[in-house]
Specification:
The complex is a heterodimer of chains A (368) and B (615). Chain A has 368 residues and is mainly α. Chain A has one domain. Chain A is 69% helix and 3% strand. Chain A has helices spanning 5-8, 12-34, 43-62, 69-91, 111-130, 138-156, 161-177, 182-203, 206-216, 225-237, 250-253, 265-298, 302-326, 344-362; strands at residues 93-95, 98-103, 108-109. In chain A, strands 1-2-3 form a three-stranded antiparallel sheet, covered by helices on one side. In chain A, a hairpin with a 2-residue loop joins strand 1 and strand 2 (98-103). Chain B is α+β, with helices and mostly antiparallel strands. Chain B has three domains: 9-53; 58-245, Penicillin-binding protein 2a (Domain 2) (Alpha-Beta Complex); 253-290 and 313-479 and 514-554 and 563-611, 3-Layer(aba) Sandwich (Beta-lactamase). In chain B, the strands form seven sheets. In chain B, strands 2, 3, 4, 5, 10 and 18 form a six-stranded mixed sheet that branches. The relative contact order of chain B is 0.10. The chains are: A mainly alpha (368), B alpha+beta (615). Chains A and B meet through helix 10, helix 12 and helix 13 of A and helix 1, helix 2, strand 8 and strand 9 of B.
């Protein structure tokens, strides 16, 4: 029988926040692709609304299913995503020099987006059974490390350095949250630090080194990434305190901004709404993330807690990396801004994340 | 659920501490972002607002200097010269109308023409320069520079421009450049940095080795003032020059061949018969590749497209012709090797050969009398070869032709090569549904019928006869000289030509017999090309007269009645000197009627020139 408490405990505030952010996202996208004018590219924001429609439908259906069933299905989801990643390598669609999309006829999906959620679910399952307040030791860490390494390398050879890195950060966040023994942590960190120069001087070819260097320092590529960063900084800075007003951003309409509807979309928002608007959006994201951690705290069983932390980490790292990147604080990597950047896979992933958090939140009574 | 136990009360405190730790990290990260936002928007905002109002950071592309092309003797054929290109940045050219009017007055042209050019490049963002005029003269440059203050957004850039030093010499071989089109742009990997508006090789060597010749473009990030002039350069990546190419071509021989084929539609391929080097390749009439650089005018384009002699086609590799009597070389070799004839086999030629209900005629109405294989080659007796062909059958004949490279791509590194056609019984059934008729084999044996070959294939075949049976891959590169020792390691190896050749397993006797026959064509008392004898050098060759439309048997030929483009094509293939061949030539004159009178003298002059024989 349907439990009434599910409605009683439904987290209306969090749901409202998600709704608000998706609304702002579509508005920004509309401005980015059309500048308020009808144009052929406008179809993008309609597509995005359809994606949100699909996302919300998934959300409404999945919150009815107890999230704890994910624990049992963790390996199936993981293996399914791994198979998709392998499929991408063979039959994927190429764009911009790497192979990331899987074409399903009318739509394309990006399995590297979905694998993030799969990893989080699987790690939540692993850690919730091995958890101890002293922290994990090396042998307990071995399995999760292997499980993360497989998709990591599959994404790395696409090549999609940015997504691989984000996935690593998410996994690391979850691992550090459940605590690692000091001795083990030190060993892993030291090994990592030492293996970097080893890989640099022995494994990497010179063109790969060049690519990594450009990735770390866009100034090395003043005609590509370096130029994008300058234009993006001009866009953000020129918004000043109160912004130029909706649809009045010039950097965007004169097409100085690269990929203004995907990775650089925050610059469009910041130009039009100024510091006040940017602060507002950043604040909403922070609220969302702290709320996510609060949901983790309110949950009274380990799987749900760790899952909530992992899902929150997905949102956190994407927001931080994307915004830092457009402000020139970080290398330009292809990480989308949740809710705002254009992209079906990104929208669906973020809606799944929201769904899982709401799901955990509305079932917190279970402990009482 | 596997994990149904809840967190113990004493552990709740542990969780609380870890979550508070996480919140502190999150808040710290967001604080950094907000501080940075404040810095960009509140503190430096005014400066960025100024930059955005007149967005003055521009990207300028630095074109690489394209590799030079030399002939085999190191003589420069294609280089780059500095040219003045007129460019405009629409966003800076304010007011645009007025600027264009002033500019048009200085250039002595109508403002509408300049506007037309702008309209054609609407896809270029308004802050990027559009090429208005290429290669303007010094007077115009001086006028524009003097008035630069009144011409905001207008600039004159000195950029390298391709120069084909000898004009239309070897134009089909060297090729030409043109603006990259949409489809080509999509095909190029991103790393190569092709951008719309770039020139790329479109034909010939320019196209085949575009990647090597091109180099890598650089660029600079500059800040410009309100009228679009560069205030300072922020960052710059120099362009990497392209590599130089040394061809196998001999410029003097090439020009000699062109001289000999003026005013006619003709093809000449000169090959070094031991290595396969292409020494000259003429497809007449030619064109001047320089005119493609600035974009062709309509009248130039229509002239080139509408010309009955098809000047844009490289007939040496693209043209497919009936091989005519030159094909008797193949029939003779096949006959001897298969044992259907030998050196002494004699056949009487009365001037015709009845077969089925048809009568096949010899070109010599009165007949040749008794012929053996050598005399049949030298006098090009059709009746002899009808009978050899009949005994061989179509498929055996085809096998020999294919082994000698006919009906196969030679894999020369030039684009748009035609394959030619060597028919077999199976081919005809597949193609027309009608079984092979034996009479057709007779026509094939003398090089008429479905047979189609390119002049280059005939040069390869002639070389194979000259060098004792090696079918060579034609080589056009003698050396690649990369500009940057970093670049070639990736680019050069795949361009180095592999010596793809195969040996024909023919007996020495066969080769000696055929060579003797070809020697007599020129040097024998009754040879068909006797007029092209050369004092001091013994030439071996074979004439051919390829029908353009099949003529009804028995109809009397009156030369004046046949329209020029229905006249037969004239062939002559040759090599010299007979004992130690150094040069192989394949000549085809379209509608030249007789190989002996039009094609053979061209080959003789080239051999004379190359071997430096007087007389």
């Amino acid at each position: 029988m349907f439990d009434r408490r599910l409605i009683q405990y439904f987290n209306w505030g969090f749901a409202g926040l998600v709704l608000l952010l998706s609304g702002l996202g579509v508005l920004t996208l509309y401005s980015a692709v059309s500048g308020g004018d009808p144009s052929p590219e406008q179809v993008l924001y309609v597509k995005q609304m359809i994606w949100f429609g699909i996302g919300y439908s998934i959300l409404l259906v999945t919150i009815l299913i107890d999230y704890r069933r994910l624990e049992g299905g963790a390996y199936f989801i993981y293996i399914g995503c791994i198979l998709l990643l392998i499929a991408v390598l063979f039959v994927g669609r190429q764009a911009g020099g790497s192979q990331r999309w899987l074409s399903l006829g009318f739509i394309s999906i990006q399995p590297s987006e979905l694998i993030k959620v799969a990893i989080v679910i699987l790690l939540a399952r692993c850690y919730s059974s091995t958890l101890s307040t002293e922290g994990l030791n090396f042998y307990q860490l071995l399995k999760p490390m292997i499980l993360v390494a497989v998709p990591f390398f599959l994404i790395l050879i696409q090549p999609d350095l940015g997504t691989a890195m984000v996935m690593m950060l998410i996994a690391a966040s979850m691992t550090l949250f459940v605590k690692v023994e000091k001795k083990t942590l030190l060993t892993i960190v030291l090994t990592g630090v030492m293996s970097v120069p080893l890989a640099w001087f022995t494994l990497l070819k010179s063109y790969q080194k060049r690519r990594v260097l450009t990735f770390l320092d866009p100034e090395r590529d003043p005609l590509g990434a370096g130029y994008h960063i300058i234009q993006s900084k001009i866009a953000i800075g020129s918004g000043m305190i109160s912004g130029k007003g909706l649809f009045l951003g010039t950097q965007n309409t004169l097409s100085f901004l690269p990929e203004q509807h995907t990775d650089f979309i925050f610059a469009v928002w910041a130009e039009e709404w100024g510091f006040i608007g940017s602060f507002f959006m950043v604040f909403l994201f922070m609220l969302l993330i702290i709320w996510g951690l609060n949901i983790a705290y309110a949950c009274k069983e380990p799987f749900g807690t760790i899952l909530a932390v992992g899902v929150t980490a997905i949102i956190f790292w994407q927001v931080i990396i994307n915004i830092s990147m457009v402000m020139g604080l970080m290398p330009v990597v292809g990480v989308p801004l949740p809710f705002v950047s254009y992209g079906g896979s990104s929208v669906i992933t973020i809606m799944i994340c929201a769904s899982i958090l709401l799901n955990i939140s509305m079932r917190r009574f279970a402990a009482e | 659920m596997r994990n149904s136990f809840y967190i113990k009360i004493e552990d709740r405190e542990w969780y609380r501490r870890r979550l508070i730790g996480s919140i502190i990290i999150v808040a710290g990260a967001f604080l950094v972002i907000i501080v940075r936002l404040f810095q960009l928007q509140a503190i430096e905002g005014a400066e960025y607002r100024r930059l955005s109002e007149h967005n003055c950071i521009r990207l300028q592309s630095i074109p690489p200097s394209r590799g030079l092309i030399y002939d085999a003797n190191g003589e420069l054929l294609v280089d780059n010269r500095p040219a003045f290109n007129l460019k405009i940045v629409v966003k800076d050219a304010d007011p645009l109308e007025e600027t264009l009017e002033k500019l048009a007055a200085l250039l002595d042209t109508a403002p509408e023409e300049l506007q037309e050019t702008l309209k054609n490049s609407r896809s270029v963002p308004s802050y990027q320069p559009v090429l208005l005029r290429q290669d303007i003269d010094r007077d115009a440059v001086a006028a524009i520079e003097v008035n630069s203050f009144d011409l905001p957004g207008v600039s004159v850039e000195i950029e390298p421009r391709r120069q084909y030093i000898f004009g239309d010499t070897a134009a089909h071989f060297l090729g030409y450049m043109g603006e990259i089109n949409e489809a080509e742009l999509k095909r190029q990997p991103k790393e190569l940095g092709y951008r719309s508006g770039d020139l790329m090789g479109k034909f010939g060597v320019e196209r085949a080795f575009d990647g090597f010749l091109r180099g890598k473009p650089g660029g600079r990030q500059v800040e410009v003032n309100a009228s679009g002039q560069v205030v300072h350069v922020l960052q710059e990546i120099p362009a990497k020059p392209g590599g130089n190419i040394y061809l196998t071509l001999d410029r003097r021989l090439q020009q000699k061949a062109e001289e000999l084929t003026q005013e006619i539609a003709a093809v000449v391929v000169v090959m070094e018969p031991n290595r396969g080097d292409i020494l000259a390749m003429v497809s007449s009439p030619s064109f001047d590749p320089n005119i493609f650089l600035g974009g062709l005018s309509n009248s130039q384009w229509e002239y080139l497209i509408g010309h009955p002699y098809r000047p844009l086609e490289n007939k040496a590799v693209q043209g497919e012709y009936a091989p005519a009597s030159t094909y008797k070389i193949v029939t003779a070799i096949a006959g001897l090797e298969e044992g259907v004839i030998d050196e002494k086999t004699r056949i009487f030629c009365p001037g015709y050969y009845p077969f089925g209900n048809r009568v096949f005629r010899c070109w010599r109405r009165g007949g040749h009398g008794t012929m053996d294989v050598k005399s049949a080659l030298s006098q090009s007796c059709d009746v002899y070869f009808y009978q050899v062909g009949q005994k061989l059958g179509v498929d055996r004949l085809a096998a020999y032709a294919k082994e000698m490279g006919l009906g196969q791509y030679t894999d020369i590194s030039l684009d748009r090569e035609s394959q030619g056609l060597i028919p077999t019984a199976a081919w005809k059934r597949r193609r027309t549904g009608i079984p092979w008729m034996e009479g057709e084999t007779l026509s094939l044996a003398i090089g008429q019928g479905y047979n189609l070959v390119t002049p280059l294939q005939m040069a390869v075949l002639t070389s194979a006869v000259a060098n004792g049976g090696r079918v060579l891959k034609p080589r056009i590169l003698s050396r690649l000289a990369p500009a940057d020792p970093d670049l070639p390691a990736e680019a050069a190896p795949e361009m180095e030509q592999k010596e793809a050749e195969h040996y024909l397993e023919w007996s020495r006797e066969t080769m000696d017999i055929v060579r003797e026959g070809l020697w007599r064509v020129v040097n024998g008392t009754r040879g068909t090309a006797r007029v092209s004898r050369l004092e001091g050098v013994e030439i071996c060759g074979k004439t051919g007269t390829g029908q353009v439309v099949s003529r009804k048997t028995g109809e009397k030929e009156v030369k004046e009645n046949v329209p020029a483009h229905y006249r037969a094509h004239a062939w002559f293939v040759a090599y010299a000197p007979a004992q130690a061949p150094k040069i192989a030539v394949s000549v085809l004159v379209e509608n030249g009627e007789h190989g002996s009178s039009t094609a053979a003298p061209i080959a003789r002059e080239l051999i004379r020139h190359y071997l430096k024989v007087d007389g």
